[in-house]
Structures are given as C-alpha cells and as structure tokens.
Records
---
Amino acid sequence: MSGKQKRADEVFCRSCGEPIKKRAEICPNCGVRNNKAGSSGQRRTSRTPSTPHNPAQYETTVSDTWWYGVAGGTALWALAFIFAGVVGDSLGPLAGFVLLGAWIGLPLAAYFDIQYVRANAEWNPTTVLWMILLAIWLVNILAGVVYLYRRHEVLGVP
Ligand SMILES: [Zn+2]
C-alpha cells in the first residue's frame, strides 16, 4: 500500500492493495473476494488457504447404494488376490471376465459414490485420484478399504 490514495468510501484491496469501494465484495482489479464488513486491511488472518468443504454446495441425485459396488469390487479384487496366491496365475477365463468387470466396475461405482459422499459428508474425495487408485492391481484393494473406511467415518451409515 505504498502511496496509494483512497477516498472515504474506499478501502484497500486485501490482495492487491488497490483502492476499491468499501461495499465491493470482489476487487475489480484482481478479482479477489474482500471482506464486506472489514474496513481495515488488517483482518487478513492466517486462515488455511483451502476453504472448508461445504456439502450443501453440492447437489446430487446419485443413489447412496453405489458404495456396495465399491465394497463388492474391492472384495472381488481381494478374492482374486487370495486365489492368485493359491492357484498361481491360472485363474481361468471366467475369473478373468469377472475381474475385467470389477476392473471397470469398481472405479465406476466410486465415480458415482464420490458424488454422493461429496454432497452428503464433510469429505470431498478427488474423483480422478480414487478412480485411478481403484483401477491399479493390488493398490485397488487397499484403496477400496481406505475409501470405505473414510466413507464410514464421515457418513457413519454403512
Ligand atoms: Zn485486488
């Protein structure tokens, strides 16, 4: 704020320091939201940069049953992991087909379930990250368990 003059109805932008109207919520210069009530620029406290997730911002018509898909897919992979250890890698074409379904179905179920979680819980999972984790062999078993555990923590339902 070096040498910038402001008028009586103006304050300095909390971000760029340009004088802006006191009533302005968003600085026309830099686009950063300013505190409507705060007239001094001193109010900029050290809040964490990531704004808290607000479930009310999200609307979804997604059913709450997609987690069954996540649980089922994870269980399938865990079974495959156990069987692969017992039978070697000769799982057979049927198991291969089932696992192909799980490989697509698990991330897909997560894709829908995350929309539900986001709109109903204090957790905003990164869709792409989880879909990738749930598509990688062995990682997906762990990721599925972690996801369901976290989901249970924030939603408390299943
Ligand atoms: Zn500004």
Note: Residues 92-120 form the longest helix (29 residues).
---
Amino acid sequence: MLALVYKSAWEVALEERPVPEITRDNQVLVRIKATGVCGTDLGIVSGKYHAAPSVILGHESAGEVIDVGSAVTNLQPGDRVVIDPTYYCGQCEMCRTGRQNHCTHKSVTETGVSADGTFTDYYVTEDRFLYKLKDHVSYEEATLTEPLSCMLTGINQIHLLPNFRTIILGAGPIGILYSYALASKGVTGSLVDISEERLAIAGSIAPDRWQVHSSFEQAIADIAPSTGQVDMIVDTTGVVGTQVLSQLASGGYLMLVGLRDGTTSFNPKEVVDRSLKIIGSIDSLGTFATAHYMIEQQIIPAKKIITHSFPLENYEEAFRTLGCDIQGRTLQASSSAIKVVLQSN
Ligand SMILES: [Zn+2]
Ligand SMILES: [Zn+2]
C-alpha cells in the first residue's frame, strides 16, 4: 500500500509499505477512505513538532472495516467507521486517574506521530477505538470527529455559562470547531482573524449569532463596549500568549490551544487577584462519542468546513493549499482553505 511517510523536517514521501495485519483478537483492519490534514501534520512536516522518523502521518480518519479479530463482536466487514486515534492503555498512572489523553505510552502509540497513521490505505486498531457511521455521514465529514472531540475536551475544562462573552483568535478549522463546541453549550462570541479571505469563509459558516472580526480590538469593542473585557478568550494561533489577560473579566478564562513554541509572561498577582484561569488542552478525553453524535446530527456544517479534498497522491497540493509548501520549505497561514482532506483509494 502507498503511504505518506515522514523522514525528517521537510522530507516526506509516498512509499510502498506492507498492509498491516491483525495480530490480536480484539483488533480490526480498516480500509482508510479519508483523512483530514491537521495543523499537527503541518507542524511535523515543517520541523516544528517532533515525530518519529519513518512514521506514516495522518490521524483524523474514517474508513471501512475489512477484517476483524476473533474477539470482536460489535463490528463486521463492510461497516463504515470513524477512528479515534488517541490510543490509551487504561492501566498507567495517567489512565487510572482520568487523564487518558496523557497516557504514559503516548510516546510510542500516538497515531501519525509516534506510531503509523492513516495517510495510507490500511490501518489496524482495537475495536474500542472505532465508532460506526450512519449511511448519511460521509467519510470526509467523519474526519472532523477527532478534531471536534479535542475542542469538546477543551471546553469541558471550563465552568462554562451560556452568557459567557467569548473571543476565539484564529478562524481556521480549530477556531470554527471551537465556536461550534461552544455554541452547543449556548455560548456566543466572535471569531477573529487577520485574513479577510478566511473571515469571509468563517462568516458564512460560523454558528448562529456568532460574529467575525478582523482584529481583537474590534471584537472587544463590539462584544463588550462598556467594560472592554470578555469572559473567555480561546487562542488557537499560539502567538498571543498571555498579553490579552487584561481584556479578561475577573474570573475569566484564557484557553491556549495553539501548539507553538514560545515564551510568554504574566503578572501572577493579576491572575490571583482577579481569579483568572489560564488553561491548556491537548487531544481528546471522553468526548469522542459526543463529537460523533454532533457530526451525525449535523450540528456542525461539516460539508462546509471541509473546503478542499485531494487524492493521497496529490498530498503536496493539499499541503500547499494549507500554506505548507513542501518543495519550497515554507509554512504560512493559509487564507483560502479551512479543512483539507486526503482521500485514500
Ligand atoms: Zn489533528
Ligand atoms: Zn495509559
């Protein structure tokens, strides 16, 4: 099977790999149909995020069950499924204390990062990581389940009230999915992005009663004209850091979900004195079934969020659409695409 393999920064290639085999009786062989290209993939390719050399990339995926181990009772060949790629052992200290997204085995089990992923034709996983798809949900739409699940995990860490005034920095796929995760709890707010093109797309697909703004200052002025402070700021860009703390109302939340190196500073007295909360969140924890339900019920406009789709062979074009020029070795924010999906054959 053809697989998109990571070698080192800016060095990726399509390679022939053997089809993986079922080796345990609770495993399932899935024929991959579609995998979303994630910011993590761009980070790995551009050398900003570590991955194991010669790993197959890709982790936001859906496909068809081809074969099942002898102990698998809830799935059969032909079933259409979405894959929860966040493996956890269930037995380590992190798993036994409700932090399965930080399973201590992650350094060798993270799909598409430290373990082979799904930018290829076949993938083997355990039955507990597969969720059946209804006929009306396309494989492409289903690829949004994993990122949406991560957003739901993020907001589960917040004591959220429906009247929280919220600003999301970055109107890319993460920002838009965050707006839907928050909208599902009754929260409204603004998506902020410096790209007019991206804002135009975001404006047409944002949840009801959500606004878009081209600057943080405009968003603050519009949402909180009297106080200049909002209850929650979600930074998906990774570049804002703690410089927005003064725009948080007392008791407010700064949620950091942009995976980027950097340094930031804040005044601990301000955080204490105004009961501010600075929260980070990575991967998904106990929310995959809810994300699966939200996609199935068409609570998020998955078809509109996926703006581009390419065959796996055209991965370079797919990455370029997202601002990642592999040949030219440059990574910029994309303005024309929200979510891009690679289709396996
Ligand atoms: Zn991802
Ligand atoms: Zn574990």
Note: The first strand starts at residue 2 and ends at 8.
